[in-house]
Write a structure and sequence with these properties.
- The structure is a single chain.
- This protein has four domains: 111 residues, 2-Layer Sandwich (Beta-Lactamase), CATH 3.30.450; 171 residues, Beta-Lactamase (2-Layer Sandwich), CATH 3.30.450.40; 222 residues, Phosphatase 2c, domain 1 (4-Layer Sandwich), CATH 3.60.40.10; 114 residues, Heat Shock Protein 90 (2-Layer Sandwich), CATH 3.30.565.
- It has 18 helices and 28 strands.
- The strands form five sheets. A six-stranded antiparallel sheet has the order 3-2-1-6-5-4.
- Helix 11 packs antiparallel against helix 12, helix 14 packs antiparallel against helix 15 and helix 17 runs antiparallel to helix 18.
- The longest helix has 38 residues.
- This is protein-serine/threonine phosphatase.
- It comes from Streptomyces ficellus.
- Its EC number is 3.1.3.16.
- GO terms for molecular function: ATP binding; kinase activity; metal ion binding; protein serine/threonine phosphatase activity.
């Protein structure tokens, strides 16, 4: 005898409930116990749910969730109802959830049990329990609709609602466009069924149109009543084989914004309780659609602002490749004060600009747009980078200083402006409180390039912005960005730079385009895996991200493949000596002998300090490493404007100076002092494959 025959003989059926698809599979006995034809069937969750007493369904829902959480059996007693809401039998279910990721399948049995004695819960009137179940249903429906963030999500939630005791087979949401009725969405119909209803005049003799005109619900419990009240449109509805219809107004703030139709394949009398449920759902649906419409309008406004304010990179630069990204992450309308720009200049030169206006709101976005236009105007007039930023600072100060109220409070902006000569690769950079640019060299070495800078724009109306000149060699890539790329995710500038530097070093300049690198940079900070690289700071606030990449194409020449860097240490910035030491260590990150690196850093520090202490000018540092790995030569040169040459001295035991040349003799393989027309330069050289005399035993 088969197992199915044994189970049927003892009035026991099998069922399988797939949570992911919402499909419930029943064998013949389980179908019979649910009041259906005694044959295997696959039904929707809503169809099966309608056969259970609402109170019992709510109870088993909690039991199933507990069984899923604990991995135990789910057991419950359920009352089965017919289409009229009368209890026809009581069954007991025992089932086991099989969990697959976030979904599960519930497999179990249904067994009929003896009727309970009169006066027990199974014999109590269904109506009273239905009213209690209605409250639970409305709470769940309200929560689900409140969480929907788009019109499509609202319609999906509305389609999945299974009302206690009765569930619609077809749903449609109508909207109003001018003097015409349109369909926003529908469920339970085939593709193309909405054609006759999708664009209908409001004066049409159709229930939804009348509901919109009058703001009053229409209930049609029978086809005869539908045909009698709306004979003109009855042929359109007749082909769907429905038995009852409810058309309810969607009202928000006293205005009817549309109508909701719920259609049933079985007769519904629309009792006061049923009408109350439908009316409440219609109100919640109207509120949810209104919220979704506002959210979608805000998103469209945000995208429109971004498209308007963020430029499309201009024509290709001969011999160069450009890529840029902007990601607004500040919240609200998703607009902020970060921006980038590319400006065509006279003579074939190109200007690249990146900046960040303080704030993440609409005012910041508005100021950003004004500042960007001003910068374009000043650049197009032919001003040099320092003059462009000076004028921009005066402009921003003028439009924000002295404004009244919180919304007009003075704001500042950071900015980096650079001019590119595509023919030579020369970059003239002016910086206003912005992060320094970074260079990825042809061999994969990545370094921050310290540049002279001034105050952020808008703080002081008359500010000077010194210009730094760099040369971008073939095969090298320049990165400029806003601080959001570095500090998002709990990072400070130092730890954030370490994260970005790793990505730049891994970039395959030959096999990957600059667009791929731009995507990787953004994904590392704001993509799905970014939570793995959060920084040490407790503050996890996000910030807007703007990044601009410039690469000089072409095969690196042998001579140009050398690592070379330069920076200026001003008299007023002695703290940049530490930056110069760190800069040299980055240049020599893969040098074979770490003791030689320590020696080079010590000599550099001594040379720069001597310039700042014994002259009145600035120090210009130039460092270059050439040759094959393991056989490279490092040449470090520090120049100043003083004609006074250094002298060898014999410092006493307690002297605080006078040991510079002694250190050079002990640590450098070669060194010297070269007079120039105006000033001098002192230099030293180290060779990677040569051991320097006296390196051992020197205290650093």
């Amino acid at each position: 005898m088969r197992t199915e025959d044994v189970l049927a003989a003892i009035a026991t059926g099998l069922w399988r409930w797939d949570n992911a698809s919402g499909i419930v599979s029943l064998d013949a006995e389980a179908a019979r116990l649910l009041g259906l034809p005694a044959e295997p069937a696959e039904l929707s969750e809503a169809a099966v749910r309608s056969r259970f007493h609402p109170v019992d369904w709510n109870e088993i829902d909690g039991v199933v969730n507990l069984a899923v959480a604990e991995g135990t059996l789910a057991e419950a007693r359920l009352r089965i109802m017919d289409e009229s809401g009368r209890v026809i039998r009581t069954v007991r279910t025992r089932s086991k959830p099989f969990i697959e990721g976030t979904d599960y399948q519930l497999v179990g049995t249904l067994q009929e049990v003896a009727e309970t004695q009169p006066g027990t819960a199974a014999r109590t009137p269904v109506t009273g329990d239905w009213r209690r179940s209605r409250e639970a249903f409305l709470l769940d429906a309200g929560r689900a609709l409140a969480e929907a963030r788009s019109t499509a999500e609202v319609l999906r939630v509305a389609a999945s609602l299974s009302m206690p005791g009765f569930s619609p087979d077809g749903l449609a949401v109508f909207g109003v466009s001018g003097d015409r009725l349109t369909i926003i969405g529908h469920h339970g119909h085939n593709a193309g069924d909405d054609g006759p209803f999708s664009d209908m005049p409001l004066d049409t003799d159709y229930p939804a149109a009348e509901v919109v005109r009058t703001g009053r619900a229409i209930y049609l419990p029978t086809p005869e009543e539908y045909r009698t009240r709306f004979p003109a449109t009855w042929p359109l509805a007749q082909r769907f084989d429905r038995e009852s219809w409810a058309f309810l107004p969607l009202i928000v703030a006293g205005r009817t914004m549309g109508a909701w139709m719920a259609a049933f394949t079985y007769p519904v009398s629309f009792t006061p309780d049923e009408r109350s449920v439908l009316t409440t759902v219609a109100r919640m649906l109207a509120q949810a659609l209104a919220r979704a419409g506002v959210a979608e309008s805000e998103r469209e406004l945000s995208l429109g602002l971004q498209r308007t304010m963020m430029p499309v990179l201009g024509p290709a630069i001969p011999g160069m490749e450009v890529a840029a990204r902007y990601v607004p992450t500040g919240g609200g309308l998703q607009v902020g004060g970060d921006w980038y720009d590319m400006i065509q200049l006279p003579g074939g030169r190109i200007a690249l600009v990146i900046g960040d206006v303080q704030g993440h709101d609409v005012r910041a976005a508005g100021l950003m747009g004004q500042l960007r236009i001003a910068l374009r105007a000043y650049a197009s007039e032919g001003h040099r980078p320092d003059a462009v930023l000076s004028r921009a600072s005066r402009f921003l100060y003028g439009i924000t200083d002295g404004a009244e109220g919180d919304h007009g409070a003075a704001r500042f902006a950071t900015c980096l402006y650079l001019e590119v000569d595509p023919a030579s690769g020369t970059l003239d950079i002016a910086r206003a409180g912005h992060p320094d640019p970074a260079i990825r060299m042809a061999d994969g070495t990545v370094m921050l390039r310290p540049t002279a800078g001034g105050l952020p724009l808008g703080i002081v109306p008359d500010t000077d912005y010194p210009t730094t000149r760099l040369t971008l060699e073939p095969g090298e890539t320049l990165m400029i960005c806003t601080d959001g790329l570095l500090e998002t995710g709990g990072h400070d500038l130092e730890t954030g730079w370490s994260r970005i530097r790793t990505l730049l070093e891994r970039h395959d300049a030959e096999g990957e385009s600059l667009e791929v690198l731009a995507d990787n940079l953004v994904q590392a900070v704001h993509g799905p895996g970014s939570h793995y690289t959060t920084g040490p700071l407790a503050d996890r606030r996000e910030d807007d991200i703007a990044v601009l990449l410039l690469s000089r194409t072409g095969e690196p020449l042998r001579a140009a493949a050398a690592r070379r860097t330069a920076m200026t240490i001003a008299q007023a910035e002695p703290e940049r000596i530490a930056a110069a030491r760190r800069h040299l260590r980055e240049l020599l990150h893969d040098w074979a002998d770490p003791e030689q690196v320590d020696s080079a850093v010590l000599m550099l520090s001594e040379m720069v300090t001597n310039v700042l202490v014994h002259t009145d000018g600035d120090a210009l540092l130039v460092a270059e490493a050439t040759g094959d790995h393991g056989k490279r030569r490092l040449r470090v040169e520090v120049a100043d404007a003083s004609d006074e040459l250094p002298h060898r001295r014999r410092p006493g035991e307690m002297a605080s100076s006078g040991r510079g040349l002694i250190l050079m003799e002990m640590l450098a393989h070669e060194w010297g002092v070269d007079p120039r027309g105006e000033g001098k330069s002192i230099w030293f050289e180290l060779f990677e494959d040569r051991d320097g005399e006296g390196l051992q035993g020197v205290a650093f």
